[in-house]
Amino acid sequence: MIWRYCSGLVVLLSIAPPAVAGSHVDLIDFPTNEANWDRFYDLESALMRGFDRICADTLCAGDYSNYRVMQVRCAVRLLTGRVTRCAWVVAASELRVQPVTGDVQVDNGRWVCPVDLLPGVPVEQFHTVLSGPDGVEAPFPALGRGLFDDLLGCLQAPGNAGRPG
Length: 165
Prior knowledge:
alpha+beta; 4-stranded antiparallel β-sheet; 31% helix
């Protein structure tokens, strides 16, 4: 009886597709699943606060008065433990009331702003730099640039949602 069970299990395992392992993982899941969860969400909150702080001065002059970071995600190369890419998702809106009709007009935009950090920043250094005295505006020593450096150019491009084409 045990032999039948084991041989049946062997057959099932042999026809099941193998798990696909990639070369990168979300920073939240480095070095293991959800191991960096609390640290990353604290960092993401700090990035959002940093964005709000500098938004009015430099980043957010344009068609909209209400910009918000929706999410930040970063990829870690498993083999080296280096953060290689991040992406910001930023949304913005503008509401206006039409005086004659009372209709509320909605205009909004969405940007996906990639940040290339190649050849990469070690995970511990990534956290240390961004939680340091210069905070989220600090450049990474080996790269000479940080997460905010390309954000202005990205947000000056037209948002890719909400406006008629």
